[in-house]
Specification:
By secondary structure, this protein is an alpha/beta fold. The chain has helices at 28-39, 126-131, 181-188, 204-209, 216-231, 253-261, 301-309, 331-337, 341-347, 354-360, 371-389; strands at 6-9, 87-94, 97-104, 117-119, 146-149, 152-154, 164-170, 193-197, 241-251, 269-273, 288-293, 315-320, 411-416. 56% of the residues are buried.
Length: 418
Amino acid sequence: MRTDDDTRTRPSGPRRRPAERRPWAASAIAAALLLVVALVTGACADDDGGSADGADTTTTTAARPGVPVVDESPDDPAFATPGPFEVGVTTLALPDRKVEVWYPAADGSTEGQPEATYSQLDALPADLAAAAPALLPADVPISALTVTMADTFRDVPGSTDGPFPLMLFSHGFGSYRMDASALVRGIASWGFVVAAPDHTERGRAAMVTGGAKSDTAKDVAVLIDTITLVGDATGPLAGLADTDLVGAVGHSAGGRAVLTALSEPQVDVAVGWAAAGREDGPPPEKPSMNIAARKDILVPLAEVEDTYAGLAPPKRLVVIDGAGHNSFTDICLAVANGNDLIGLAERVGIKIPAELAEGGKDGCSPESTPPATVWAITQNFTVAELREGLGLDDSGTGLGKGVADEFDATIEYRQELK
């Protein structure tokens, strides 16, 4: 992780065993920046078992094109490390929003290419993004707000080993499509095309302008539209995604969206990270997983447990000790580097309401489980669940009862498979 001008997201790696607001009238720019800094670290929620035995022997699975073969036992966290594919990223567009897509890249196509980046200000309306740098501390360059996506390369050719299964990603309330780049990059490296649309109705720009609203039905519709968009894409994505194999993963309000999307015939399996519930009546009998952060103050563990209880088997619940709401995103790296906008705002004397500041840094304190550890755990369980739920892997690799003991964090793991 760099500590000079930018924040750098790295692929997940294994960690195995051994208040009061400043008056709005004081300054239009100051008021705009207050909203920016209060919300740019968003990803907040807007509202509201037994064990599988697994096999003792290794199994060769995944005969479909593009899906890596894995010969590991169910208790091995085989998917905690980066997968065999290099990763590209490109931007598509629905009529009213952008969609970021991470994908397996062609062998050798990334050599000599610069790593892809994004700015923490990209999620904001253009006028507010332009105003924000004026109030940065004098010793903080605008480049400090840049996030470098490690080992991710823009618009490089796609792998010829596909087609690959499609994973839809839905971001949290007050967040935006890039905020979980480290984790979704790691998933793409295991042979998935990962498509993350902006949920503009409840995204960061909508929060800043005061128009954010929750509309889960619209969230689901956007995800379904994204399937067609990616399937019809040209350029590096041409023919790359198998849109008959679709999993959905989401964080917070996005978790609610993907668990709700299980009712759609196009979606075969869903994984929620700190998922803020589920809508749409009785759940279908499709595989699902919830991954929760025990210290989450925005979507408390009790709420995730209620969501899990309401889902139909087969289902799994993973609870990570020491993790918080933002542990699943890139945000904690900026906090650790001192480049998060809440921290910068406090340096220039802008008061952030204590509850909002606490939520914006939830999971990012020195006492929290390190982001790389949370990413490794989340990546392993998410990839393993997608592979099994899409019928790509019948070995249960990464889902055995002993896998929870293979990380440098305490994990509670439940399964209800019948």
